[in-house]
């Protein structure tokens, strides 16, 4: 027969066994079938909530793992023999107490006081009431275990105190959502930070004065602009002034946490306020923009609430560089741009975990919920090629969206921030009328990001005093809301009254803050001191070598033959014991022969030698895309995969990372399945790192359709609007191979339509040597312009498109390639065919078959900027040519035809006619039927060599 002590130690309610039982219960809550049947029956009984008379018992819905404290009786009073029924009663109530705690952690945000306008009553949430669990008033003053909470250092609290602490922590002006996070360490960290202060931050008098100062400046700027520049758009921050207090905390805390740079992206709301009151832009400069003055160094410029800015600000912890990204009206599209810029800065510093560079994204409520690029950017956060050590997201939630919308029409989720749960980011909702709570959650969010290197979201629930812009009358569609807004005294006034009531400041002192800021505005003086105007950080990039440079096509891109052979040997060397796939091994063997000059180079080898020569010369290379390592058409093989992975490191080897000692970095990244966010990221990277060849490759050329906003708003126009240069390179597989509408065209016509002011380069090279020189030229020339390369598909392995190694050791990129067939006699040429891309090889073979030796074929390799001089030199060779025909694969209304015809016309001589040979106009980029594709291909060849017909523009 067992002794009493033995019975105690074996009891499942005894303290020593509590951890075991707790683990069982957590497993039960996740998967009831994972625990033994005996324990499952026991826990089922504890989960039943006592029912009212005449009703069935209901099951308590647990909202997260609940830590049980089965050993309460043993810890309190020592063990005393009890019946199993009594044990179950005690344990059952303790479980229900734990359920209440879990419910507040999960659902407390829904009952929190978050709306400054108090437009809706708090919802009734039964799970937050003790009665839901069968606990009565008689239980409120009983003592229960509190060992898994952080409200007190004591192990026990009365239920009344527990409920009060829960409501103070989770249901006042802060609503925390974090129980969706799967990592228990993270959840406990947040619980400790919130519960240890009962959600009530404690600030010193000086800290409170600083908060009021920020609110005063935020409100003061808006009121000054409202009276001085009546009716002009500025996207006022009024109603959301606490945002400036939040950003001030971000800057100050960053300095203390050794953050050296903050890269910020935001849309319009509050942008001017951010520029003046956080980044330190001179108010006088802002006023000049309101008065219509412009920068004559920009060809186009942009409106004032799109502009970026950078400054160096002194903080108690040291100087911090602030950079506000330029942003168009597509709102959230700036998100990946900021992430790319931050990643480039981190890599320049060797900041592997993002401790020194902080990305901050400021969102609007409707845009955060509504725009897909938000989700795409969030999805990059924890990936190897795009992570930035966590981003701080701040939502200025004005509860109305953009113009006249209602939350019921702007999203299908409870909160505008719910999309952030996909990456398990904690979300802190906070009432914008409680600036101390706003600053507190900002501190918390900054500490969280520093601790866990993960995204975190602050949702400042505020309001918008004026319309979407200052010309709107929002009361037309939101009369009740704007009636309340009209009665609201303002966040600054309320907080000032609070500080006066606390004795922190006098009313006169609060009024003097307002008057002093007005004096600064009247004088146009800077409000942020000190801004370090002469400070230059160690890792700052000097763009001056690339500025004010005239366009040139020429560049010395040749590489000595001996160096090419050495590089070829390095990129075809595989470590001993590394098992390459047989198909890839053949590619490597062929490339070694190419490097030895024993066979012509194909496209992949020309590309590889360009990268190898660049990294060996100190230029880093970064190439990303959905199949970037292998290449969509398996032509690149920049990453070799060991077929017996357990034998070699992580199972891969990258030859281009091993071409020379002290070489520059080479990174090739298979991206997530995204175009818009990834291309935006690479654009942002390129604007922060001019000395890196940054390439984004579309899986197929038409995939770029999904990133059109990035092309329109940044790549094609960023320099004209903002003076922002970028050397970003786009590779878009293009060519009519009978693969249907979706995989034929990279939409050449769209890019050409955007070309002006030498804003970018649009190129369709046709040989391995051409791509080699083109990629090198992109870095060697002393300016940075976006480069769009329409890359081939069938030409990747077409032997006609190969190049001897010698062509890489001499010459340069040719914008126009003239006739290369020695059998064509210039004086006998009657017709000149001009084309771009793969169709050249179709024409070349057709001419041979037809023995049409009076036809010359010219290749336009660079479509923009168009090389008039080079074309003129080639056309001079054919004085007897009376017909010029542009030939293209694409339908007539697509491709280069409508763009190129006026360039050709300018180079024609008297009596010459200009014609077109190609597919007929089409609503679709290509036909879907292979037979019809072949029929059209045959027809365009017939037109090119047949009797002149169609368009006839006579010079």
UniProtKB/TrEMBL annotation:
Q: Which Pfam families match?
A: 2-oxogl_dehyd_N, E1_dh, OxoGdeHyase_C, Transket_pyr
Q: What is one cellular component GO term in this UniProt entry? A: cytosol
Q: What is this protein called?
A: 2-oxoglutarate dehydrogenase E1 component
Q: Which NCBIfam families match?
A: 2oxo_dh_E1, PRK09404.1, PRK12270.1
Q: Which reaction does it catalyse?
A: N(6)-[(R)-lipoyl]-L-lysyl-[protein] + 2-oxoglutarate + H(+) = N(6)-[(R)-S(8)-succinyldihydrolipoyl]-L-lysyl-[protein] + CO2
Main EC class of this protein?
A: oxidoreductase
Enzyme Commission number(s) of this protein: 1.2.4.2
Any one GO biological process: glycolytic process
Record carries keyword Oxidoreductase: yes
Q: Which PANTHER family match?
A: 2-OXOADIPATE DEHYDROGENASE COMPLEX COMPONENT E1 (PTHR23152:SF4), 2-OXOGLUTARATE DEHYDROGENASE (PTHR23152)
Its required cofactor(s), as named, are: thiamine diphosphate
Which controlled-vocabulary keywords does the entry list? Glycolysis, Oxidoreductase, Thiamine pyrophosphate
Q: Which residues form the Transketolase-like pyrimidine-binding domain?
A: 601-798
Coiled coil, from the record: none
Per UniProt, subunit arrangement is: Homodimer. Part of the 2-oxoglutarate dehydrogenase (OGDH) complex composed of E1 (2-oxoglutarate dehydrogenase), E2 (dihydrolipoamide succinyltransferase) and E3 (dihydrolipoamide dehydrogenase); the complex contains multiple copies of the three enzymatic components (E1, E2 and E3).
Top-level lineage group: Bacteria
Concerning its family, UniProt says:
Belongs to the alpha-ketoglutarate dehydrogenase family.
Asked if Oxidoreductase is a keyword of the record, the answer is yes
A GO molecular-function term, please?
A: oxoglutarate dehydrogenase (succinyl-transferring) activity
Biological function? E1 component of the 2-oxoglutarate dehydrogenase (OGDH) complex which catalyzes the decarboxylation of 2-oxoglutarate, the first step in the conversion of 2-oxoglutarate to succinyl-CoA and CO(2).
């Amino acid at each position: 027969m067992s002794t009493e002590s033995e019975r105690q130690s074996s009891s499942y309610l005894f303290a020593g066994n509590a951890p075991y039982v707790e683990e069982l219960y957590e497993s039960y809550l996740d998967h009831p079938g994972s625990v033994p049947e005996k324990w499952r029956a026991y826990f089922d009984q504890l989960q039943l909530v006592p029912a009212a008379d005449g009703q069935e018992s209901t099951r308590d819905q647990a909202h997260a793992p609940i830590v049980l404290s089965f050993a309460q009786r043993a810890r309190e009073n020592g063990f005393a023999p009890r019946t199993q029924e009594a044990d179950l009663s005690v344990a059952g109530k303790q479980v229900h107490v734990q359920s209440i705690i879990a419910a507040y952690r999960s659902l407390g945000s829904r009952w929190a006081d978050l709306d400054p306008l108090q437009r809706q009553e708090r919802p009734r949430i039964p799970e937050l009431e003790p009665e839901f669990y069968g606990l009565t008033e008689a239980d409120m003053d009983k003592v229960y275990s509190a060992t898994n909470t952080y409200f007190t250092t004591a192990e026990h609290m009365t239920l009344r105190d527990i409920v009060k602490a829960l409501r103070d922590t989770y249901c006042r002006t802060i609503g925390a959502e974090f129980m969706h996070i799967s990592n228990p360490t993270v959840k406990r960290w947040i619980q400790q930070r919130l519960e240890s202060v009962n959600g009530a931050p404690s600030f010193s008098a000086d800290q409170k004065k600083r908060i009021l100062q920020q609110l005063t400046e935020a409100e003061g700027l808006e009121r000054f602009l409202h009276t001085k520049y009546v009716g002009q758009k500025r996207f006022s921050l009024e109603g959301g002034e606490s945002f400036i207090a939040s950003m001030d905390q971000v800057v100050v805390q960053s300095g203390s946490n050794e953050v050296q740079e903050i890269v910020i992206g935001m849309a319009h709301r509050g942008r001017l306020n951010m520029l003046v009151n956080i980044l330190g832009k001179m108010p006088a400069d802002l006023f000049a923009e309101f008065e219509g003055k412009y920068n004559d160094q920009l060809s186009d410029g942009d409106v004032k609430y799109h502009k970026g800015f950078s400054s160096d600000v002194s903080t108690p912890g040291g100087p911090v560089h602030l950079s506000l990204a330029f942003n168009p009206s597509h709102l959230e599209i700036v998100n990946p741009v900021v992430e790319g810029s931050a990643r480039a800065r981190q890599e320049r510093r060797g900041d592997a975990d993002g401790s020194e560079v902080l990305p901050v994204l400021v969102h609007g409520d409707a845009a955060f919920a509504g725009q897909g690029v938000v989700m795409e950017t969030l999805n990059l956060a924890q990936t190897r090629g795009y992570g930035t050590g966590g981003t701080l997201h701040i939502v200025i939630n004005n509860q109305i969206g953009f113009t006249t919308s209602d939350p019921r029409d702007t999203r299908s989720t409870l909160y505008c921030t719910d999309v952030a749960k996909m990456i398990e980011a904690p979300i802190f909702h906070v009432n914008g009328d409680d600036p101390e709570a706003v600053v507190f959650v900002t501190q918390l969010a900054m500490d969280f990001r520093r601790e866990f290197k993960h995204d975190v979201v602050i949702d400042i629930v505020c309001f918008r005093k004026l319309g979407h812009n200052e010309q709107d009358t929002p009361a037309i569609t939101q009369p009740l809301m704007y009636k309340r807004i009209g009665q609201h005294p303002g966040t600054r006034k309320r907080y000032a009254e609070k500080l006066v009531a606390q004795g922190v400041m006098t009313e006169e002192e609060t009024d003097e803050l307002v008057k002093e800021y007005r004096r600064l505005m009247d004088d146009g003086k800077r409000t942020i001191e000190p801004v370090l105007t002469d400070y230059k950080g160690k890792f700052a990039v000097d763009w001056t070598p690339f500025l004010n440079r005239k366009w040139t096509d020429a560049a010395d891109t040749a590489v000595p033959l001996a160096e090419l052979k050495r590089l070829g040997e390095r990129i075809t060397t595989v470590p001993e014991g590394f098992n390459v796939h047989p198909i890839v091994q053949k590619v490597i063997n062929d490339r070694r022969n190419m490097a030895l000059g024993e066979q012509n180079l194909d496209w992949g080898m020309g590309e590889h030698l360009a990268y190898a020569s660049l990294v060996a010369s100190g230029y880093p290379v970064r190439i990303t895309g959905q199949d970037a390592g292998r290449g969509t058409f398996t032509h690149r093989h920049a990453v070799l995969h060991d077929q017996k992975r357990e034998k070699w490191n992580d199972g891969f080897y990258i030859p281009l990372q091993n071409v020379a000692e002290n070489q520059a970095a080479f990174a090739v990244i298979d991206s997530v399945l995204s175009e818009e966010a990834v291309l935006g990221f690479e654009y942002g990277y390129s604007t922060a790192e001019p000395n890196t060849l940054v390439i984004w490759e579309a899986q197929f050329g038409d995939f770029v359709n999904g990133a059109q906003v990035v092309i329109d708003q940044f790549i094609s126009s960023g320099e004209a609007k903002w003076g922002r240069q970028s050397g970003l390179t786009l590779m878009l597989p293009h060519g009519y191979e009978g693969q249907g509408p979706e995989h034929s065209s990279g939409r050449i016509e769209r890019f050409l339509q955007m070309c002006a002011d030498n804003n970018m380069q649009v190129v369709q090279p046709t040989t391995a040597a051409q791509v080699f020189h083109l990629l090198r030229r992109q870095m060697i020339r002393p300016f940075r312009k976006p480069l769009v390369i329409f890359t081939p598909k069938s030409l990747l392995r077409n032997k006609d498109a190969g190049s001897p190694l010698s062509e890489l050791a001499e010459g340069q990129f040719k914008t126009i390639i003239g006739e290369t067939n020695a059998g064509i006699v210039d004086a006998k040429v009657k017709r000149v065919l001009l084309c771009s891309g793969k169709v050249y090889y179709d024409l070349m073979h057709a001419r041979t078959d037809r023995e049409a030796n009076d036809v010359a074929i010219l290749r336009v390799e660079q479509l923009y900027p168009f090389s008039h001089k080079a074309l003129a030199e080639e056309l001079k060779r054919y004085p007897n040519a009376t017909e010029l025909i542009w030939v293209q694969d694409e339908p007539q209304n697509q491709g280069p035809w409508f763009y190129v015809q006026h360039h050709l016309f300018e180079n024609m001589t008297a009596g010459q006619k200009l014609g077109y040979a190609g597919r007929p106009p089409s609503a679709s980029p290509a036909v879907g039927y292979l037979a019809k594709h072949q029929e059209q291909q045959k027809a365009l060849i017939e037109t090119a060599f047949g009797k002149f017909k169609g368009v006839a523009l006579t010079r």
